[in-house]
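User: For documentation purposes, I need each entry recorded in a consistent format: the amino acid sequence on its own, followed directly by the corresponding structure tokens. There are two entries in this batch. Please keep commentary to a minimum and don't merge the entries.

Assistant: Recorded as requested. Entry 1:
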Amino acid sequence: MQQLYQKTRNFSLPSGITLHWRNRCQNTVDNITSGTSLTKLVGSDPVEFKQPEYEVTVPENTRADHLLRLSARVRATGETVKYRISQGNEDNLFHLDPASGILSLLQPLDYELQQQHELVVEALVGAARSVARVAVKVDDQNDHAPVFLRALHETQITEEDNRHLPKVILKQVTAVDRDAGRFGRLIYTISGDGIFTNGSRPCFSLDAASGTVLLLRPLDRDPPHGQAQWRLRVTATDGELNAHTDIRVNLKDANDNPPFFPSRITTATVSEDTPIGSLVTRVEATDYDDPEEGDNAKVTFSLEKNAIDESSGRPIFAIDSELGVITTALCCLDREKTQRYVIQVVATDGGGLKGTGTVVVDVDDVNDVPPRFSRPEWTLDVSESLDPDNVLATLTVVDQDVTNDFAYRVVPDSGRGWQMFQVEGVSGSLPGGNLKSVKPLDFENPDHRQGFNFKVQVTDVGEAGWGQKKHIAETWVRLKLMDKNDNDPMFSKEIIHLTLPEDTPRGSLLASFTAFDPDAAGESQIRYHVDPNSDPGHQFDVDRTGTVRLVGGLDREITDAHSLLLWAVDDGAPPRTTTSTLTINVTDVNDNPPFLSDPREVHVTENSQAQLVAQVKLGDPDDWQQGHGPPFTISLDPRAPPHITNSVRVTLDRRGDDGRGVGVVWTRMALDREEHPTLLVPLVVGDAGWPSLTATVTLTLHVADVNDNPMAPAAKTVTVHTMQRKGAAVPLGRVYVQDPDNWNTGAKTFAWRDPQAGFFLNTFTGHLSMAPSTPDGQYELRFIVSDSDQGQRNIEANVTVLVKRLSPNDVRNAMPLTLTSHSQSLVRPHSEDGVSVLGRLVGAMQAWAGGSGAAVQVISLQPLEGKTPSTRVWLSAVGIANFEYLLLYHKNKLSATLGIGMQDVGVVSCHEDAATSLDKVAEERCVGGCWVGLADHFSVVDANSSAVVGPQVPPHLKSAPASPNTCLNGGRCLNTASGSRCICPHGTLGSHCKVLSRYFEGDRDGEDASTELASEGSWAWVPPIPPCSEVHISVEVLSMVGTAALLYSGPEQSVEQGPHIHDVLLLELHQGQPMLLLDLGSGPITLTLNTSLADNMWHRIDLIWKDELVEMIVDLCLGSHWDKLPAPSPTAHNHSSTTVFPDVHMCRSTAKLPQNDHILNTSGVLQLGGLVHPLSPIIVGRDPVLPHPPHFRGCIKNLRINGKLIDLGNGVLSKASTPGCPAADCLINNLYCGLHGRCQGSPGSLHCECQPGWDGPGCASPTTPTTFFPNSYVKLALSFSPLAYTSSITFRFRTLRRRGELIVLSSQHGRDSWSIQMVDGCLCAVLHLHPQPPTSICLSQAALTDGHWHSLAATRYGSATFLMVDDEDGDLYNASLLLEGQQLLEVDKQEGIRVGGSPHFQDTGMFKIDSDYFDGCIDDLRISGHSIPLPPAVNSTTWGQASTFKGVEQGCFAPSSCTNVSCRPPLICVDTWRSYHCGCGEGRVLGRSRVVCEDEDECAWQPCLNGGSCFNTHPGYVCTCLVGFRGQHCQLPDVSQTSLKLPVGILVTSIVWSIFFILLVCAFLLHQHHRRTALRKCMVDAKDTSEDCKGQVSPLCSHTPNLLELQLLKPSRASNHPTWARNLNIADVDVLRVDAGVMGLRSNMGTTDSTSLTENHLRKYSHEDEGPPLGGISSWITL
């Protein structure tokens, strides 16, 4: 449509109104919204509307407003248009302005009444008019909210009714909405009780279409979770407006709740004198059912379990059935008889439902029992150092009443010293009175020293009760005052001044100091020491009397004054010290001759003319002011060799050096270096003192070389040691030609004569090298050398190279030896015999170590830097035991043989920066605390005509790797599924087969001192004491002599005396008394004890130094023989025993260590039983040490250093000493302890003790373990009282749990205790002795929660505790020797022993198990050596009984851990007691193909000892033993083969039984003769025998012998195994076999195939992996 825009008038539509403009031509509608301008259109008609139809939309409820402007176009100009509504406005809702054409709304429109209005409008211009239609559409608005017809809906259902679910409980809960459009569509939701928002299934649902409410789940009416009325709310919403209605669902009660008591346990209290019918308490019960619904909630009460009076059989309590009131039914309860009653009350409702509750009635006390002291007499040892406020003792009182008001008093005039003490009541649960002193106690007071004796009384009715005798008890107190080291010693002189000349002789007495100690009644022993800080040069010494002597000599030139501090130390514990001072002024003596000051060395070129060489100046350290110095004199020594006097002259210039005098040195002629390369010019010098001191000093004159000599042909030998690994070339040194001149390689050239592959030559320097992979052998190399300065060409030089490959064994057996010599001197052949020092060294060691069978060789040489030239030689000794000790022993002899000094043996210094990269170091081992190995770099020592080349051996630090399982003393290593273990011979112990005892023969008169080990008497060497700041050494000795050396570590005789005193440890016996000499570098400390150990009994000695204190303890202050503990009395009682604490002065000695030195630095071995060489003079000078202490005769065992047991077996270098201790060997002394017994005791008191897990006669019966389940415990009562000072606990245990209490020993009321616990996987022993805090020791590095059996031994000596497991070695041992404070533990033998946990009775009357040990087993419990029962298998023994136990079971079984476990084939699940692993099973290993499991041949490990033969079985193996041995591995001596002295009666009995047995055998042989045919027939078919479910062979024939079957055997030869020993024979029968376990086996046993022996022939029996084979080859009887 063509439109012409002639005139535009704009107007805006009202807000919310939309104008629809229809375009007829295009049949479209243009929307014009508010704010849009309309343009008047002008056409061809006189008057014409823009559009014939208009549409406008108006929201309902819109107020009066303009809707739109109508416009018409007029063709004639100047005409006026009028507008009007002609139709559709009957309700007068609209208005059209005639002039403007604006259509307006006069009244709001309602969508719900009419959705659209049609208007017809006209435009008039004169008579012309135009008509248009306007459609006004009403837009719906949400002006009506939904409405429920009812505000509340209510219904009733029965509770817990689950029938017909889901079911309708309300119909058509709907709402109405007057909106007609989209706002009239409603959505319903339900909320309230039972409608959950957490995803749980709701109890109700609502049908949105019909408004029906459904019940989905049964409802509960009763508390605590139910409710009588369930409230819901239904919400209807049209999207914007909401409406609500409430629903009430009322529940009808059902009797579904039994009555219950709000408090499960009700406590009440009643007095013990209450009459009958008295009120005890009232109980109340609650029933959640509806009380209005019949009798559902009506409750009646009754007593289901009442307390019954034992004497009358009548009930003690009664209850009112309606009110629940409990009253007493009997008169006068007795609290002392029964303190608490527990009764059960039942509440029943009308429907028969019941609920139970517990009433605990505590009986209140009435003070009707008199008190009594727990002891009729108290004997106390009290230290004088306690203040008056300290408690001396708690006098415990026994009174069964609890309403006691205790009052105490000391009875006046009752005894000596009563007025000095008072008794105060103890506040707490334990009744008693604290005894205190009202005045200070002083042992130095003679009246106090006599002790105190007085009477103490107690009353239980307060201070007013002293007149009531019935309520009074008394006891005697006998108090002995113990001296405390509370006074310092006092010197008689505080300071002494001396002036001494410096030449004062050594040993001179300088001064005497006397000190007095008021302690110990003046009997205290005073030790005197020199403060090491005041005497750094160790020049002074003080003896036991306080006499100070000069031992090191004075030297004014070093120190002109000394201020010496003297210590006086008493013998208290801890010792107290006082100090005095000795000042010494040192005056000068002309004791130093002049010395060569400058120069000391000069150089002169050879062939030069005579010339001035030097002007020599002198010096003198003496005091020049006293004339002890210049002017000096100097001259050439007239005794100088001729070549010196002919070459040098010396004159004195007196005016030189400011008049002090100068020596002028000249050469007389030209010097020849090849004749004398160095001239040592002796000069005689003197000072001006009176008398004058002269000396001869040396001026060194070096002659510088000039190449003036020709070369000559020469030969050289190079010895090379390599590992033949890939790497850089091996240097061999330089090609050698004989040339007197110093080598001038710049003028020389080198060339091959016959080049050889694998060797390389540097033609400029002459250095030779070879390939590292060069094979062993001898190589002849030929070279030519030319010298351009001399004009020489092609001089022959031959080199012989000897290549030797080092094996790993050579490196593992390497040992360093440090020699004080230049390296070239060791390699250079001697001019006389052509043998070098190294050659003589190797030859001597081979001769001393065993001659031609020894394999000693030099691996490498390492030159060392220092003032003194020295070389470290690495020697290898394969197959030589104790090679290091042999070197040490022959040190002096070897030094004399070689003609050079030996500095160290087996000593290296390691530093981090000294190590080669670890990936280039191979074959490492530990030497002297450092890790050493062969590096890729080589050390070359070239001595011209000979050279030695070897790999460098760099020492370095690193973490120690896990050591292999080393089997000592002939033990065999056996590989098992659980790892490697040792098969140990008889007499060895532990996992490494250590020998723990050794016998020493003592001094042997008349012995030839020239023998190989040329020392008279017995001795043994063991590894040295580690250099640690804390050291604990323990040793047990059985001495047959009174004076002898026990332990020694220190310098040897060859050490020269000097100002430095070497560290030393010497433990001796002096007339039976132990004496320790210890010097850690700051002066000696001597400890002695006045107790004799020379009684042929075992005694233990502990040496400890740590924290500035050194102490020596004998027998752990046990006060008895170490191996014979005092036995507890079965009739003793805890509270009547009066254990006396041992006298620590007799068993313990201590001393204070200097502050600076706490480490024993002795690199040598620890010598036992005697000294190889006499003591160094340095040590002999220390009183009271003997020059050569006698050798020890007796036994030493259990030598332990820092927890590690030292092996004393065959690997120990010794003389006149053997492993074991015959005097304490049960078998030697005709006492056999059986397979599972061990020998204990001293000579004369030997006895057998069963190993853990074994009991009965001969220790042949295995004990029965007990399994502990959760919440389990065992309470034990003993028939004896363990000693208060010492006690022991031993048992076996097995667990995977990391926490739990295994056993507790406690005193009455648990005040003091000693327990064994598992704490975070560590086994700990916790000791608590009041008032000290608890102390504990743990095995923190031992893995004990592995499900295997472990044997534990814990011992206590006072406050010292020991904890040991299994081998009792290394990480399996820990000890604490703190003997301070409280030492006694009075074990309550009735209530103080608990196993597996501590039951605790709570206030609620229920038991709780603290520290519960469960899912584990305990076996063979022993306390103080006595077997204690473990229920349920054993409930009582002679020494105790189980009083209470819970949750325990006999045996130690566990459910299979392999259930529902599958392993990857070919592996199977192997059950390992509450755990499992995948493996091949016992005796089987994974084959090389890794796809099948194969039987492992354990015989390859040679597990059979003492010549036994091994036979492999499937699985396992069996050993057959030679005559005289038995056991699973032939490790035990056969007692039947041992000649024992038996009583006549036993011999007669044995003979009779032997005759009877022979007759029986003959009868049986006759019986066999008649059955031989049938037997042979059966044996032919033996190959087809089958195995039953137990793996036993079932015989195919029906023949069953009546008694035994005897079969003839020939000695079987197994591959790679020795034949059986031939026994005594009868009628050519070698072996007569008796086999009762297998009948009808093959009779033809002559085959050599060991596999023909069936499994039953080789069957073995073991209990917990122990025990000899039974019924197998080792049980055959030999005749």
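Entry 2:
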Amino acid sequence: MVRKWIFRYRYDMAAILLMLAVIGVYLAPIYGPGQIVFSDIAFGATSHRYLEEIMGVWNERWSTSTMFNAPRILYILPFYGLSLLFGESGPVLLKSFITGLLFVSAFSMYAFAKRLVSVYYSPSFTKTRIFAIMIGALFYALNPWVIFRIQHIYLLCGYSLFPLMLRFFFSAVDPKFQIQQIKNYHPHKLYQRNWIDLFLLAAVFTVSAAAIHYFFFGMIYLGLFTVLLLIKLTWTHRKAGRTYLQPLYGNFLRKGIIFGVFFGLLSFYWLSLYLGSMVMDAQASQHNINVVDTLSLFSRNSSLYNVGYLLSYWWPMFSFSSLPAMFYVGGGFLLLLIGYAMVTRSHKNPIILIFSLLTLLFLVAATGTTFPSIAKWFVILVTKTPVIGSVFRDPNKFIGLIALNFGVLLTFGVIQIMEWFGSSPLQRVYKRLVLVIVVLCLGVYFAPLRTQFIEGYYKPVQVPEAYSQMAEKLTDPDRFDSKALYFPIADNMIQSFNGVATPKWNKGKTATEKATGDFQVYSSPKNTIFHHEGNDPGITYYMNFLEYLLDNGLSSRLGWLFSTFGVNQLVYHDEYEGQEKRQDFHLSQLEGQTGLKRTYKNGLFSIFNLGQPPPYMNILTSKIVTPYGFSRLESYSHLPGFDFSRFGVLFSALKPELKTIQTVNKGDYVEAASFNDLLLSQLPAEDYLRPFDVIEDGNAFLKWSKTFASTNDWLWYLSSQNIRNFPFDMEMDAGIAVTFASKKLDVAPYQMSSIEGKTVVDFDSMLRTETFFKPDNPQLFSVEANPREELNNVPTLHGEIMKGDPSNIWQVARSGLLEAKENNPYQFQITVSGRGTNKMHVKMRFYDKQMRELGVSYVVAPSEGYNFDGVKFYGEYVSPPGSYWMRMDLLTLQRPQQKNYWWIHDIQLRDLGQYSKPNAFTMHKKLEQPQTSHVYARVFMNKAGGKLQVTLPGGVVNIKTHDEGLNQFEWVDLGEHAFPKGDTPITVNNLQGFNAVNQFAIVPVDQLDELSFPVEQALKRGKLFFTLEAESDFNAQGNVQSERALPRLSMGRGISYQQGTLSRDVEIAKTGTYSTAILADLPAGYHGALTMKWTNEETGKVLTRTIHTGESYTRLPVTSSSEKQVIETVPNQDGFAKQIIQIPGLLNDYGRVEFKNLFLTKGKYRLTLVLDSQVPSMSGYGDIHRMAAQEVAVMPEDNTKESLTNDVGCVADIQPGKTSLSSGGEGLSIRYAPSYSCDWNIYASKKMKAEPLQEYAVQLDARSEQIGSRHMKVIFLNKASQILQTSYINEVEERDKEQWNHYDQIVKAPAGSVFMQFQILAHAHKKQSGLFQMKNYSIVPYQAMITVDQLTVFEGTDMETFFTAPHASESIQATRENSMERSFTLYNPTHQQVLIRETESPNPLWEFRLGSETQRARLSVNGVTTGFVTSGSGSGKVVIILASAYRFGWILFIIGILGGAACFLPYRRWKKRKIP
């Protein structure tokens, strides 16, 4: 019996062994020592605890749901078991998984193709046919798409089983297949074989759902084939009539029910999670932004040519130009065989016709947005299809279906061509020759991807020993309530020039650096809170906030801020390529922080213990409800009495639907600088309109775009506009609409390459008008014109906005000035070759008629990280209002290590004004009846803002969004408007500037009192206060500010003024006695004053308080070494530019100034702080003199001589002409006699004493007439009066010097400075007398000015006792029951309302159950952990709501397996059933 079986399947066994051998040889490089670490492959150094990411509904290790992972368990389980046999080896798990996937893909296609051949050719198999089937199977297993997608490994689970699923489907429902398998088959009868096939179909379909895409693809395919089969059978048996067809349809229905029952039983364990989460409003989301630009990005390589060769992956990580010609020859021959099968077999076999038609359909679909005529339908499919639309956003995923069709058709093509030959000896030679050719073509088609990926990106690397050493030092890794936080995250370590983050140890022979995920988290033996794609986006946002603080050195309270996660250890990993300086800077800060104690360090990891971490569940005795952003956590940490162990911060604007304001009890705290800030953050959902929902674009430089505040895109937008003091406002769970463009380029992204416009500048005109590019630094770059006719052999790239620090860019060259129209879209095309052009970056600068710079548009940057030597590069931008001139700058994203040569071969600049439209979006408010509503807009006030125009039912309202001090979202009152019944459009048009809109609130006037009441009651119960940061919460007017950061200050910065004001509108929400606490530095020794004014906007009454320097106030001691640090930005620094320095004497008088007993009535006020430092100038008009020749000296090794003027006609050997100086109380004048001398006329101040590393504020007004190259500078001298450094005062254009200009600049003394001197330099006119005038001149030490850090307004009279948490009589004890359940005992005998914090990420899958009370875990404490508010007492549970369904699903799974097994039993009744 066994021998017969072996003989019968000898060819199959040989083929399977041969396929396994081929796959093994192909994958041989991955079997080397080490682990595969690349891209989205989320496998750690060991398989220890890996199954927790998949089993159950909650992943305790990452504190996230397993919703996306649950279906994967059946597929991964055998490989996980194998890894256990090898000591929980992570490499064994991953490598066996990859091998298994590819082998299962080959076997699955082999089984399906063999069945097709058996049905449509003959059930007898020759070696030729087995060979053909094996070729199709290997093609399916090793084609380029599969190799690309190994990095998305679980996608291949569905792919690998898809042919097998179709095999069982056709065996169960297609009469052609059943006739061959079932003796005396009749289409009305249900056979045992049908039951078996339907069970196997359900089983395979269940396992293949490990790739959720293939669950949907499978449903589409099965539904489509069922319909086609019914149509075919109906047509075939149309003459038999209803009596024949009805039982036939009934048979199909019965089979559908059987399949549905089996599938439901086997899949309930994961399907119940998906459906249950939707029903119970707990579904996980990847928080993707699906816009047309995203679809275009995914389609950028989806040409029909690339699709045909299965190469269309959007980020291939190597240049397609490096593929050898033989790849295309081999692949082309295989495509010919596929086409041959389509042509020769489609008319004979309907199944081949169907596969051929599906191939054509998916070839078109896989092009995505490449072809405009198809693109619009593709966009509709993705953006308008409910629930599953986003599944299709990457058209490359259709390639998997094309590969299936190609595999089938290739099999038939090989059989057809092999059997075309006869059996003569010569024809047998031809057959063997074809066989060799097919094998060779397959080999050369597979080889290049093997080189790039299997030998490159997927080749294992040795995981450093530091990982296992660190793991051994983690505290209590086996305890559920012991958690570590890993920092930083990979998303925040991305290198700007290539878009990837990777550890230094993860290297190989690759075209570009290897993108790497959070391997440290994948390898963690200890629980953590991870910014997983299914987790609350607030966690990622808070991670970004902490990264921002660390990157800029803005906090000395990082220990407190990390403690909000409830972890007991912070694990910092210093391992990222290209981030060495940045990470060293991070560690230098962490080491000096209070509340962080480093307990372990090795070559990569530093472990910091956090002081007194909270229990897993604890009661926070007081709540703080605030409508503001994460920066408030830093602000509060500077207030006496506050700490995160007793106070829980609830952000009302994080999730407006939770109505957190109503949880305020007596003794809790409410922050509000405006009543509307609270009210409008907690409205019913129907009162909001979200701009995010109506925008479908993603390029903010060309039109309205949408983003999330939690993304790095948003932070990049701010950084590009030099906005450095963003308070990390909440986006109200509504997203953000953002734009830079004053007019809209009304062209879809996929149409950009095909639009035509009027050429305004080209290669010849730039050369003719001398506006061609000139290098900024000829020593580093040479940029030359080199016209070339043949330009077709260079890649064409559409630029994308580079998400990195705009300051980390090196200027290469700039064009001359080009004429520009205002509010006009343009497109440029530039063809460049030379080293480093793949790192080229283009930006446009815009100027008005007077050459004042209007703005900078970072237009484009190529995103490919691999090297290429030439590129045809195009991109678009829109000029701002007032533009008269523009200039193109070429930049590089890496500092060159040697001189680079760039040749520009062609350039064109096109006017796209014909495609211009108002940059507007329209929302719609639908009402059942007319109503009058008060309308508010939450817009981003910022220094780069401009003007918005909002069209409402009551008319047009303009919003000014420019503010030099504020950079935050604010509610703007747009007035009352009468809305008619039905649909009312509301249009927002960007008129000028960088603008962002978060929400519109449309509040019915007749409901305003009702909505206000709970807020007013909460204010009565709670203690009212608000905290304002000087640098971000005020309108500031005064001198220029230092770029330095001082971690001792709240948010690292304050405002220092010689004479200036900080002001803003505030609202006192309830009448009472208030006090203010101002964190400030009032240096002693001067006669300065800090004055606070409250101006009642209704009565005009002014309340004033003043403190003079020298008066007593509470001085605050230095509490950590980090408070002594000064963060300096190093100019012209390659890469990270921050460094820590120490400067004695800074903030010596830092403390808290309190103004008490301020009786303030409810209403609106103008709050003003007047800073009057009265620091005397170190130099005056009286000490300005003509500089003597030997007054200062140069260092022996330096050449600091000023360059001579470029004026033609000066004489170098004659002395300068006569000059005269006159000065008085109002200013100074210097007159210059005509002279032909090339020497400088230099006037200088006295030598002023300078302190090393100190900053000095230079202020003056100046004008000049008939003198050349006039400029000013400050020189710093050592003890011997030798020049150490020269700091030039930034000058205006030469033509603007005749008018009065204000100069305000900070200069920094270098180390070793003893003296400093101010100098005025100019050349006399050759024929006319000249004049220089100066007034308002002063030079003062910056640190001597009064500095305001933070102001807090609070109810009461004493800041020391304001934040007082009552002693807690309540307590809670928690116990882990299992991964999906916690039990607790809450002791709350007085039934006070308490806030319970749980150390898990907020997720509505968790439900709090206490007695009859239930509540879902939606509330976020401090924005990152779970909170529950209850007044109950006793024993309760916190459970996963779908846990019972999950467990029940496994019971059904066992029932399904038993039912399926029963189908295989040899019951006689299967045979005895008669046809009905």
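Summary note for entry 2:
Residues 473 and 600 are 7 Å apart (CA to CA).
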